[in-house]
Amino acid sequence: MAERLVVVGGDAAGMAAASQARRRDPSLDIVALERGTRTSYSACGIPYLVAGDVESPDDLVARTPDEFRQEHRIDVRMRHEATAIDLDARTVEVRDLVHERTFRLGFDQLMVGTGARPIRPDLPGIDGPHIRGVQTLDDGCRMLGEARELECRDVVVVGSGFIGLEMAEAFVRWGAKVTMVEANERPMSRQLDPDVGDRLVTAVRGLGIDARFGEAVEGFEEGLVHTASGPLRADLVVLGLGVAPEATLAEEAGLELGTRGSIRVNRRQATSTPGVWAAGDCAETYHRVSQRRIHIALGTVANKTARIAGVNIGGGYATFPGVVGTAITKVCGTEVARTGLSTEEAERAGFATVSATVETTTIAGYLPDAQPMVVKAIAEQVTGRLLGMQIVGGSGAAKRIDTAATALSAEMTVDDVVELDLSYAPPFSSTWDPVQVAARVVAGKV
Amino acid sequence: MAERLVVVGGDAAGMAAASQARRRDPSLDIVALERGTRTSYSACGIPYLVAGDVESPDDLVARTPDEFRQEHRIDVRMRHEATAIDLDARTVEVRDLVHERTFRLGFDQLMVGTGARPIRPDLPGIDGPHIRGVQTLDDGCRMLGEARELECRDVVVVGSGFIGLEMAEAFVRWGAKVTMVEANERPMSRQLDPDVGDRLVTAVRGLGIDARFGEAVEGFEEGLVHTASGPLRADLVVLGLGVAPEATLAEEAGLELGTRGSIRVNRRQATSTPGVWAAGDCAETYHRVSQRRIHIALGTVANKTARIAGVNIGGGYATFPGVVGTAITKVCGTEVARTGLSTEEAERAGFATVSATVETTTIAGYLPDAQPMVVKAIAEQVTGRLLGMQIVGGSGAAKRIDTAATALSAEMTVDDVVELDLSYAPPFSSTWDPVQVAARVVAGKV
After folding, report:
1. pLDDT band, residue A152 (cuts 50/70/90)
2. Is B387 within 8 Å of B290 (Cβ atoms)?
3. Is residue A152 flagged as an active site residue?
4. Which residues of A touch B330 (CB under 8 A)?
5. Using one digit for the tens of pLDDT, what is the confidence trace for A199-217?
6. A208 CB contacts (<8 Å, ≥6 apart)?
7. Which of B59, B183, B338, B411 is placed for a possible disulfide with B216 were both Cys, Cβ 3.0 to 4.6 Å?
8. Which domains does chain A have, with CATH numbers?
9. What ipTM, to 2 d.p.?
């Protein structure tokens, strides 16, 4: 009899692992369980769906259940929820949500791709119906509907991370009155050093958002958000406080957990139980610069770790070298990106740091389309090893972070970065790319 | 008495070396000789000056002679041409072009930054007054004047390299009727593989340029360019056949020359004579991937090699690791970039290659601003080492070449590139960056 792989979760990680396993091992019997109504969609696209930039929610779906069934011979079962895993018996308890019946499914190998869920702070009134996290495509569709309705005038976004900023912009574009409440003194404070985060404040306010930094939410009630400064009107509250790994099923089954409750995996994406794998937002990963285990929920990481899991499930051998902490977004016209460690993260990891923040332009300063950009480079004292970079600026600024991300993987020093043969023509860059200008200034301080 | 540094050539290379030397050694007596009327300008900006994008030619000047005099204590002598170098006597013969007198200037160290000159093919009528290379800012100013005049209706651009394409677009934007004559079958044939170069043909023609590929120029006469297919009307002819190192002075002095007549230098930018240095477009450089000495005339390389020369002149120690062959430009809305070796270059250098060309989009395909882009990745068979990459596509496509340029410096394999933690959000990229998509496909062929 063919070996059976059961996949729990039919989104990016689960289905990428399943497809890769199928490619490696045509004989596998693959069953994928998804409690929702869609497979493999771009969760990162939800803010753009809500903003009205995407024609149809179906556009966010990379592959439909039928495509998986026909092209990859994967038995995708929609509206089927895995409710328990028995690691000894090697079975999954499954609830068919449509026919309301429960059954057990045996597995030889199991792939856990249960994703993450928006963090809901333990505050009075948090369970109110108008308080939403951004998780599934169905959530996105519902919010798009609400955004379109004129009644939805007051939107409060709690938190100022990537999703918070992207959702705030989406609602502003529909004409809503958006207030952002952030306990920290500046946006994206976990991602950016204070001097770089400060540059974003102007961009957020310029968007017409009533941004309240340094103001904590104290509770919710129907139509209101309470903060230290008093109540705010809120027809809708969007939670942008980040996500936590959805690892309850794994934990209850007895799989070992790691950082912040994520599922512990080794470099092959294997969990503590042989033949059981995890990848994507539910799993732990590794930071190549801090050399620490971390939890990071990003589409890129989900796809990469799932591919590694799939290769190993299919009988191949692959390891995931880890991440360097790259992230990017756009707030109206202002682009933001970061990679590596922030100064605080670097010091927490034990590095003594030097850094430099340079003001420059996205393209040759004498061209009419040149826009300001700021680059901060962080390096290790004495060795000059690049540890991190942060960028805020106009069009074309942020994607330059990839140069730094690549340099981090290669453990380059700032001197190495200065000598890189980066592309230059006036409509693309200054002669010394801004990334190199920042590296040069730091190199002078090492 | 203070040691004297004489700098021949007051453009990017000469003045960057002089400034760096000054920073390292405050006691140096520095004299810079420039036969023209401007120092340190962006020659790469000339096509944009001619196109009308730059307000004033002075905007292209990074630093004026007075700034060098006052801020760096460099004795800049404008309209002074070095006419001979006596390496034994350690003197330079100088012609003061304004006062029409000649004198000798002794040096302890000499920095040669004589640049490059446009290639003028040995064809009948090549010396006609309407046949122009793009070299100095004064050339640029003159062409801007001509472009503005309605009389200048027919412009023929000979060659289709970077400068040829940029100048063709500049004249098209002023309403000229532009014909491009290129002996090769496609544009940028030395830079791009045929399948990638083909993508550019449409862009060039879409610009309204009468592009004649596979058609060689046979000669010129007043108002005409002769090709195998007959004469073309030409009020102005722009040469876009690349540049050759301007090393006559160095050669006559007895300095050793290298590839294509460029001045031979070691990794510290030292020439064959102690205390005599060269950098920028006149000097030889080194290709980190092919491991061959090459001549390459680019602003980035000029600035980098000049900085190295300046550090060494000032008593420091620095070496230039070489280039990886990165270049970028834009033809109307189409961006083009390349790095590393083309397939032909790689095979000539002895590599057995595999490659893949992928069609993708600049940003998430479901967003309205997504534009097509093509990425070709070239790798070494067996080892999978990345050897080169080429990109053609819409806005945001080409600057991604820097990821490949950085990966080449680190001698990464295509598998390493696939695992890079590159930035992703829907307005910036597909989940797998196009660079990684190409690397993945090649990795499958290694």
Report:
1. low
2. no
3. no
4. 425, 427-428
5. 999 888 888 899 999 999 9
6. A172, A178
7. B183
8. 4-39+60-116+244-313 (3.50.50.60), 120-239 (3.50.50.60), 335-443 (3.30.390.30)
9. 0.95
